[in-house]
Amino acid sequence: MKRRQCKLWAWAVLLSSAILSPTVLAAPDADTAFEALLEKHWNAQLAQNPTFATSLGARQYDHLLSDPSLEAYDREVAQAKDFTQALATIDATQLSAAHQVNYALLKLNLETSIEASEHGGKYMIITNRGGPHMNLTQLPARLPFFTKADYQSYVTRLGAMPEYLQRATERVRAGLDAGWVQPCVTMKGYEKSISAHLPEHLEDSVFLDPFDSQPSIMSDSEFKQLREQAAQTIENAVLPAMQRYATFYSEEYAPKCRNEVGTDSMPGGKAYYAHRVKRFTTTDRSADEVHQIGLAEVARIKAEMMDVIREAEFEGSFDEWLVYLRDNPDFYPKTAEERMQVAAAISKKMDGELPKLFGKLPRMPYGLKEIPLDIAEKTTTAYYSRPAGDGSRAGFYYVNTTLLETRPLYQLEALTLHEAVPGHHLQIALAQELDLPEFRRYGGQTVFVEGWALYAERLGLETGFYQTPYTNFGRLSYEMWRACRLVVDTGLHSKGWSRQQAIDYMAANSGLSMNNITSEVDRYISWPGQALAYKTGELKIRELRARAEQALGNQFDIRAFHDKLLENGAIPLSLLETIMTEWIAAQQDAVKS
């Protein structure tokens, strides 16, 4: 498997060299065949993900939910193998330059999916901050509710929820039998995320939220009838199914949770983690190599932190500084409203700075929302939700407003730049507007998405943010957080680290609150490998920018650099490096001429 993946990366780089090459000619027959395959593959993706299809405006699946069963997963893997075989019948060298890249990226996606199926991760659809029930409880906030048909489809989907939960339960149960289950320590309190959706009064159910307001195009009688149908379905079908799921979790899943935290404690866990490292870094680095990079970054950032502490004229050690920051109430918001207002002000300020950094900006706006209370205490400090592909919903920056004593305001600038603009919203919304195949506009590599967002935090240095030692330390603490991830994630899953060892390491270095640290460590335990993407991607982007600045000198144009970096969507690092290397060379040639 390793040899096959290495060849794929090398081949992706080879094909990417056609991007700027005028010698590659389009072959209409090959392009036509490949475009037909792209369309067939995309339609299959929509059929497998009906609610995602709805968000893109593909409304033919509006009455359906996805099938979370293991049988459906196996069918999807078989389909990926069929598409891989179909790809092999097309001579990539006969494709146009753009389609050669699309070909390589599609092949990568398919092979990654096939390789993932060889590991027990396919059973792990419950994590410490996610699960099948949450896929359902989030639908009222994510589906469109503008027409009578929208509400009719929703009622039909409500009726499908019991079967969805039953099939998901059977898949998780198969994982229990195979020895694949989350650690006990990371799942404490998880049952609250289920019980929160078993209200004493039906009117309090989140599933009735879409009926809080009536579209003007619907008559009172139509709306009332659909609301009554929804209420009956929720009461007689959805809530009993949710209760059965809660019983399954408490009586079957929780008692079988594992004591060890590393993936290597499960059957085939070492090979699974090696796969995750490659998937989330898009490199051939070993876990140990990633670990060493993390240690070096932690040391570098620690030195910068000490410089900031001296700038603040604080007389004490690094540990004493952290205690000072963690224990001083002046650094923390007093109310949820204060935290949201500060985040909104930061967003507004950065909005005005974007034209200095980018020539092309996304058309789709974004907004701010509080993270729902039923998941807030177990989830991260913020997250981003992409806009609907059909333009029916903006992007949203979700802010955690619980446990305010653990969420310092001096970190809010870095957090906001990461989640909103110029971070996730700018990159993801822009990608959705690119003239690329759908699988690239709405998908892509985590290492690029998260690497870009971490890089975006640093852009605040160029746009008037981080003006005090405290906010600058907040930025560095966030960068240190991502550097620590390289050390901690690999430590937990490949070096036998305990949960406490990971917590102690982050507490000694990161500057995060203890609540954030424990929440983050539990995330790395529950979601192995994903946390490696951030620093890995950011380091590559910074490396490419440094190379461009050195090569172009005062001819370096930051707006052109960013536009080029973002114009291909979320691509693997090897392909990104090839594209940017050729761009730098082209810019040098233009200067010479």
Automatic annotation (TrEMBL):
It comes from Arenicella chitinivorans. This is DUF885 domain-containing protein. Keywords: Signal. Pfam families: DUF885. Coiled coil: none annotated. It comes from the Bacteria. The keyword Signal applies. InterPro entries: DUF885 (IPR010281). Residues 1-26 form the signal peptide.
